[in-house]
Amino acid sequence: MSEVLFGTVPAFLAILLGGALRYRQFVAAGAWAELQKLNYYLFLPAMFVSGLAGGVYTGAPLLSIIVGVAVVLGAGSAAIWFWKSQVPRAADLGPQLLEGAIRANVPYGMAVSFAFGGSAGLELFLVAAAVYLPTVVIAGGLYSQLSGRQDRDPDTAQEYALATAFRLLARNPIAIGIVLGVGLNVLNLPIPTGLGRVVHVAGFAAMPIGLLATGAALNIAGAQNALDAARVAVIATLALKLLVLPAGAGLMVLIFGLSGPAAVAVVLISALPCLVPRFTVVAEPTQGILPGIATLATLLSAVTIPVALWLFS
């Protein structure tokens, strides 16, 4: 357990530091949004290009990681859809519950996986994250598409939601970085030395900026408002996100016989708390209960992530 804490506590402390900086107004409030924008458009894509292009995956159980992540996130999406169809109140909150249940704070996971397994651990986590991104975007589009058909309301404007999701994915800078990184690796094309170093350094900036911005986005009042507005739905979503999905990932680890950094990658991408995304197919990121869910999930992850990694990986 000490090794698990060594890998997770520093990342969480960085998140708390971001919260403290925001509370003390050490950084101007408007600067955090610009840092998140920079991370989204530059540093995270650079991390995926550098990490995936330079990754050595010989003998790595890539197919098991891909299938395991897709199955767990797909099952989580299906659980939210089933709940929506059974509980009238959940139907109104369904898009935000879906975001809260299957979204993951990727920079948080990068920091933890790097602390655990160094570059090799980070490279396998990037594979899991590369599966995660299209899975959640398509799941969101499919959810909206099916919701529009079920509601049969022409004002819902969800008829082409799945097509919209694919268009958003095609324009997503992180997805573009994933495609470039995978392509360079498959074709065995090295990034030119000077450019490669710049991309590598830029990519590693994604971790501290992402962690600090996560802390700055913590919203205690939003968490209380979310509990007041929909306590049962919020608690159920947190349980699914922080307990059920990691347990499902542990089952995938057992089925596929994964161990070491590969097991950490599958469990971690499933156990990470949600965040409030800048762009989303199914919900307005700054409205409703989603910021509260993200805050509660992040704070609780200080306990749930170490336990999940200890138990399942």
Task: Describe this entry's structure for a reader.
- The protein is mostly helical and 313 residues long.
- The chain has one domain (2-312): Na+/H+ antiporter like fold.
- It is 81% helix and 0% strand.
- It is built from 12 helices and no strands.
- It has helices spanning 2-23, 29-54, 62-86, 88-102, 106-151, 161-171, 173-186, 193-204, 206-216, 220-256, 260-271, 290-312.
- It is globular.
List keywords for this structure.
313 residues, Na+/H+ antiporter like fold, 12 helices, 0% strand, mainly alpha
Largest sheet: none
Specify the structural class: mainly alpha
H/E element order: HHHHHHHHHHHH
Amount of beta strand: under 5%
Number of DSSP E strands? 0
| Amino-to-carboxy terminus distance | 11 Å
The unreliable regions are 151-156, 279-286
Count of separate structural domains = 1
Helix content: over 70%
Q: Oligomeric status of the shown chains?
A: single chain
Mean pLDDT: 88
What is the annotated CATH architecture? Up-down Bundle
Write down the CATH class: Mainly Alpha
Overall body shape: globular
**What is the fold named in CATH at topology level?**
Na+/H+ antiporter like fold
Number of alpha- plus pi-helical segments: 12
> Any idea what the radius of gyration is?
19 Å
Topology:
Blueprint: H1 2-23, H2 29-54, H3 62-86, H4 88-102, H5 106-151, H6 161-171, H7 173-186, H8 193-204, H9 206-216, H10 220-256, H11 260-271, H12 290-312
Helix pairs in contact: 1-5, 1-9, 1-12, 2-5, 2-7, 2-8, 2-9, 3-4, 3-5, 3-10, 3-11, 4-5, 4-10, 4-12, 5-6, 5-9, 5-11, 10-11, 10-12, 11-12
